[in-house]
Amino acid sequence: MSTLYLEAAKVLNKIEKKNVGIRSVIYSEKQNKCNIRKLSALVHGVSGKRKELELILQKSHLLEDSNINQISNYWLLLVLAYEQLFGNLKIQGGGALARLVRKNKDKLYECFSKEYPDLINQVKHSKVYEQIPRYLRVNTTIESAESVLNSILDQVKQTNQFANDDIQNYIWIDKHIKNVIACKHEVAKLLCLDRIPSSNELIKTSKVVLQDKGSCFSAICAKITPGDFVLDACSAPGSKSLHIIDMLNKRGRLVALDKDSTRIKTLIKRISEVPYLAGPFVYKKKNFETIQIEDISDECLLGEIGCIFLDKESKLIRNNKLIMIDYLDNFKPPDLLIHVAKCDFLSLTPTTEDHLLPWYHYKNTISNLRVIVLDPSCSGSGLPQHGKVEGVNIEKRLKSLSEFQTKMLIHSLSSFQSVETVCYSTCSIFTEENEQVVLNSLEKCKNSGNLQFSLEIALENWENPNRSYQDSSFGEIYKKCIFVNPETHNCRGFFLAKFVKNSSR
């Protein structure tokens, strides 16, 4: 156990017991075993956050597990909790209480987020999230990750601001996702790799896409391969859809749905920037026409066609225009087809006749889906900009979100007969939106006699941080899912559960 923590606990105990000031105790002759400045900062910090710390420890049940009948344990637990949540965000040294706090740090953060969402946002932003690098997903359909990495390294060397033997500490290929490059903020800012629009040619030519590491797991865990038919059920603003398009490698189909018109236009704009795609084409007057994004109306996006994109090399494209619809049915479907449509996923009800529709109707694609990627609205508690929604009680909001997310997941698991894989994800750290949704969805499918899927290990060799649950069912779910912890994994918070149809196992 760090001497600093032990001394801080003694000081706090003496202040409480003798009702004296912090300064007089710290500067007494007996309190000289550690750095006075660090000790003073720690004691002031714990004193200032005592009310919050006590509530968080109570809600997380750590007060019950720490033998607080010993007064010294009580103050030491407050010191350790402060260090984990507000201080260095990492406890130094060993000891039973230190191990207890480390083991339950995710539970502490969850309680912290629920009780003090504004406060945790400030702490996260200033401590953890500032250390997260900028992640760049390489569009491997255009260029390899190694080639892009070399290009970035060359750009860095030309600035003469980093020693050659030190550059690898600022830029590296991610160990879990081989087409993702991480850049520390100094490099990303210097090379304009941290913004859109950007003057950097790698972004302008779509060779790289700004996408956080956690968000990349949806397509990776779904094991999307060329030729797949995929549904991105809540697709806007489009990072996951773009990743899916990349993994299809010019062969397969994607249906990208969203119910928000503004967000859909953002998605369409991003897809239109992929250099090898032609479109968007919209269905007008019994024909397909190219259209400017600002001219796309809800009328264009509603219905069973929406707007579509094709590979520019498709035989259906003539002079960057789609051939007349009268001839479309005489051609076999294109190798690559992207549908974008405005649709509430819960209202999407496939029928046995959908496969008879022409290939340019997105319900034709829906009838042959293999993969559903589902990332519904969530609290966003894993993101740095997360904060409390004014006027809304957090428990009430989480209950509402959890019920909605459960409906979405049940719909994915029960309404699409051809689907073999469903990946459910959130950018939340709350159990209510993650493990609870998984458990509720599986139980409701089972109770209705429609349990076709099982939870499967999302990603081999992935290690979640240690976490304890009062409900053992959550623990079993957690073992198979991906839980991205900003502190542990150095990227934004993210959760993913992978379901595989029993007949496909």
TrEMBL record:
**Which PROSITE patterns does this one have?**
SAM_MT_RSMB_NOP
Assigned GO CC terms: nucleolus
**Any keyword Ligase?**
no
Q: Name one GO biological process term.
A: rRNA base methylation
Q: Which InterPro entries match?
A: MeTrfase_RsmB-F_NOP2_cat, MeTrfase_RsmB-F_NOP2_dom, RCMT, SAM-dependent_MTases_sf
User: Pfam families recorded for this chain?
Assistant: Methyltr_RsmB-F
- Cite the binding residues for S-adenosyl-L-methionine: C234, S235, A236, P237, G238, S239, K240, D258, D375
Q: Which Gene3D superfamilies match?
A: Vaccinia Virus protein VP39
Single GO molecular function:
RNA binding
Catalytic residue list: C427
* Highest taxon in the source lineage: Eukaryota
Q: Where is the SAM-dependent MTase RsmB/NOP-type domain?
A: 124-502
Keywords in alphabetical order, please.
Methyltransferase, RNA-binding, S-adenosyl-L-methionine, Transferase
**Hey, which family's this protein in?**
Belongs to the class I-like SAM-binding methyltransferase superfamily. RsmB/NOP family.
The name this protein goes by in its record:
SAM-dependent methyltransferase RsmB/NOP2-type
